[in-house]
Structure formats: C-alpha cells, structure tokens
Amino acid sequence: MSGGQVGTSETSRGGAKVGAGGKVDAGGSSARVGLVVRGRNQRSRARGVVAAVLAAVLAILAAGCSSGSASDSLRELRGQKLEVAAVWSGVEQRHFQLVLRAFTRQTGVAISYTSAGYSVPSFLQARLAAGHPPDVAFLPQPGLLRTYADERVLVPLGQIAGSAVDDNYNPVWRQLGSVGGTLYGVWFKAANKSLIWYNEGIFERAGVAPPTDMAGLLALERKLAISGSPPFAIGGGDGWTLADWFSNFYLQLAGPARYDLLAAHRIRWTDPSVTATLRLMASVLDPRVIAGGPRAAIRTSYPESVSQTFARRPAAAMVFEGDFVAGVISGETGARLGVDADAFPFPAAGRQAGPMVVAGGDAAVLMRRSPAGEALIRFLASPQAAAIWAAQGGFISPNTNLGVSVYPDPITRSIASSLLQAGSNFRFSLSDLVPASFGGTEGRGMRAILQQFLVSRDVSGTAVRLEEAARKASWPLRPGRTQGGRGRMPCRSSQARASATTSSPASWTRQLRNSSALVVSREDTSSSAPVSRFPYRAAALSVTTGTTFSAGCRWRSSASKTRLPVARFPSVVVSTATSMTPSSSAVTRCGRVSNGSNAANFSP
Fold this sequence. Notes:
Oligomer: single chain
Distance between the termini: 45 Å
Number of domains: 3
CATH class of the largest domain: Alpha Beta
C-alpha cells in the first residue's frame, strides 16, 4: 500500500464517513451561501468524526511498508518515543494533542509535545546548536523551511510521504513544501488570514453591517466610534498579527505580482507601494479606533484581543486575524459562532481582480529520522489526521480529501472553501516568506518595526527601518545547478561577519564545491581601499590576473557594510586583466572568500 492510501472501503460512525480513496466527510449538508451566516456549534458531530476516522488510522500508519503486515509494523513502533514541537499553545495545543493521541493509541508510540511559542526559529536554532532537535517540528514559514533544507538539517520526505502528498494535496502545496524539487515538509494546517471577526450584538445595536471595501471599513469605524464602541481590539503584543495586517493591505493595494517582488526583496521596502500601504494602515488603525489606544495594543496578545472582542462586556467590536480565531472564541469565550460571532472577508482596496487571500500554514518536517517519525509524517499527510482537529473548529486543512462537511460550523466550511478556491490570488503572509531573522522572529525585524509604527505612525521612517532590516537578513537561496546534483551549499552562520580588510593588494575570490560560477571581487591597492562595487547583472566587470571565479551570493562586507550585488559568470581563471559579460540569470550561494594567506568572511 502506497503512502497515505487507505483503500476503497467506507467507514461510517456518528454521521461521519471515510470514503473511497480515504476522503473524509461528515453527515449532513455542506451547502453554504455567503460568509456571514447564522448557525450553531456542532460539538456532538465532532465526536462522531473523531470516532470514525480512528477506524482508518491503522491503514495509514502501515502505508509505505514494503513487506510485513500492519500489525507487525505497529509492533515495531510500540515503545518508541518522539518529541514534537510546534507554535500551538492553549486551545490549539489541546486540539492538536487529540491528533497525537490518536496516533499513540494505534501505534503505542509515546509522544511529548513542546510548545515553541511564536518564536519557532529561535527555539529551533537553540535546539540545533545543542545537537538535540525535536524529532518532528512544525515550521510556520516557507522561508524557514527553505533555510533548514539548505542547511541540510531536514530529512527528505519524498520516499516517506511523497505519494500521500500527491494524492491529498494540490501541487502548489507540494511546491511550498519542497526545495530544489525535493519534498521536505507536509502542510498539515493552513490558515485564511484575510478575515475580520465581529461581535454580532455590537453591530446590531449600532445598526451597521460588514463592509465590502476599504472606504466602507473606514465609514464603519466612524459609526462604531459614535455609538461608543471602539472598533478594533489589536493583539499587537504578538508582532506577527501586525505583519498580517500589513500583508493584507499590501496585497490589496499592490497586487500579487508586486507582492512577490517585495517578498523576494526584488524591490525595496522604501518603494512607493510600501509607503502607500503604511499610510493606509495608519489611516485604518488610527489611535482613536483601537481599544485602549496603540500603547495598550502592543501589550495585548493575540488571544487577549479575541477575548476582548467577545467577552461578556466586550472592549471592541472587531478583531482581525485568521480562521483560527474561531477556536479561541469557542474555547475561551461564551460567544457562539454564527450567533454572537461572525466574520467577513478583508475589505478590497485598489483595483485587483478577484478576491485576495493572505494565508499561513504549518508544515511538518522530520528533523531526526526514525520509523516512528516516518509513520507520524505519513499520518499527518492523511485526511484522517486533519479531520480530528477540523471537527473541533479553529482549523483549516489544505488536504483536498478532507470534505468541507467535516468542519463543525458553516463559517469554517465557507472559510475552508474560499482558501482552497483562491487560486493564483493566494499568498503566504510576507512575514512567512522573508527570512526568519527579518519576518519570523518576535521582537525583531518586521514584527518589532510594525509595533513601533502602530505607536509612531511614522510612514517614511518605518519604510527606511524595514529596508535596513531587510538588507541585514540572510535571504533564501535562489535555485541553481550544481555539479553532480549535490545540491546547494548551505549558508552557515559560522561563515559570517569577519573582518574584510587586507594589508596587501588582492582580488578576493571564493571557492565552492561545484562548477557553477559567480564573481565576488575585491580589488585593493592599499589597506584602506573600499570594496569594489558593480551593479547586479552588470554588462561587464573588469577582473585582474589570476582570479578564479566561482558561484556566489549577493554579499555585504562586514567592514564597510557595502552591499555587493553579484551577477553570474562562467567558471574561469584569467591569465590577463580582462572583462567578462554575465549570463542573463543569477544564482545565489554562500561561502568563504579567500586569497592565499588572506581570507575574509562575508555575510549575505
């Protein structure tokens, strides 16, 4: 049986069905019109779904075994131990642990769960440095997945769960979990982050309705303020929420193409499109519309902002964030989804065609190889695993074989459908796409700068600080061919930030373990000479006698702080001073610059 394939039988319990090919559905109609609805919580059906999918777990866990029975495979797993680390805490942790318990009941594998909080990169960096990473980790950013794949700390998953991913996911999700064509991550959880949740009672008393565009949102804020209700609770203490605000504004104003350019740092964060977005953000999040004001907002956590909006005595009428808000509403407040709490899509701005959806997600990666870890990855790639959490609410799965009827309420079913149907207008949050040091770490980079912006409202200064932070980050490597298919040389932190001065004339070059070529040049005539500059994809570059060229990145000299954009050249050792024309494409690499006894490390 191939990875993740359940067979063709159908299991039904409590109104839930595990159908042909492993598709999981729940009894009842999944018909839905619009997003703003009335409904009621269906927790009894959630228990039925969980009971139904457990009947199919055994086949999932045995998948991928080349020989032996399922019972033999499970006997081999019994008694093994795993550590799983992810961002989730509170209600989300409790719901995820239901998934892990289902795996444990069927396998006998003991699992300990560690909540890494909202600083997954820092948590994993410390564990890797100590030589003791978790067996399975959930990475909330594609950029972080690329970084760890380049550093070769992840186990390739093609032979472990590749067929399950092909069977259960749209190709875009496999691409997001792959680096250089190799699968490293299984996207277990997705999130639609283009939602604004609102308190039904406050809206009814104020006589207002959800808006469809940005002008309508600004008018709504004014009406709510007049009625005596602060429009927004902001969980700015968790900087990722502000990064999601910015991402939605930017996608709406600039569109998907420019969004991709900014995510790759192909345009600067001082670009007019960025400053226009910051002005709009300052307008919508005016201090007068924020519960408690901006300074209180940057001390308020995301869960607290949700509780403030749906408390018995609410502090605000609305809260912005993803579909996972539903889990906090159900688990931490007395509000009922579809009765007391509802949501509307992030209002449109600009002239973009079709709905724009900012998304997020959590990819399961294997950091320590073991039979138990492989079995857990296969299980997480199945619709049966996703159905357990989906039935509890506050969860969206990108697994196409999870029927939307499994979700416990009409709101979540609609949100799940809209995410799967977003097509080419679906984008991960910018904080997830950029390097973790810039976008993925609390208290640093984009997250800290946007917290400052919420208070200062300094558009131009914030744009400059964002660009400065972006330039200091280690950007993901671009794909390129290497000799013998050996993969890309990783950027190692130990190669960074040494002095780049020299006491003798030199042309600095760098050597790599491949045959592709890219120039990193330093031409000195004295010890005080600056690093030579040349434009990215320049027409030509003068080089000196005896210089060997090899593949390289855009570099920044640690001594002069000068950024060195680099273009691709053929691999060659020149015997006389000459110039060469780069090819039309550029690749990136990392490494050490050396010239005989003189050596320097440059940080990308």
